[in-house]
Design goal:
Number of strands: 0
Strand content: under 5%
Helix content: over 70%
Number of domains: 1
Radius of gyration: 21 Å
């Protein structure tokens, strides 16, 4: 039976750890956003040439990272759900 396999149990542990790490990464990225904001304020006060374009580029990249992190978490949740449904199907057919 699939649920008794060590690989299935290990998979569940790994996927849960991975999903939690995505949550941790998102909060770290938001913290990074605050640090970037302070850095950009200093650069604006110093009248660094091209800072407006750099700021837009930095935020675009940061928001892309945030979106990818959230999308990857969703993909892992979907993967976990598919494996669980396969496991449930195997168990159902095994006991039928």
């Amino acid at each position: 039976m699939l649920t008794k396999l060590d690989s299935y149990i290990k998979f569940q542990e790994n996927i849960n750890h991975t999903i939690k790490s995505f949550d941790d990464n998102v909060s770290e990225i938001y913290d990074m956003e605050n640090e970037i904001e302070q850095f950009l304020e200093i650069a604006k006060k110093q009248k660094v040439p091209g800072i407006d374009i750099s700021e837009k580029s930095i935020y675009a990249l940061l928001y892309t990272i945030m979106a990818n992190t959230k999308a990857n978490k969703s993909h892992y949740i979907a993967l976990k759900a598919r494996i669980e449904s396969l496991n449930d199907f195997i168990n159902l057919t095994h006991y039928s």
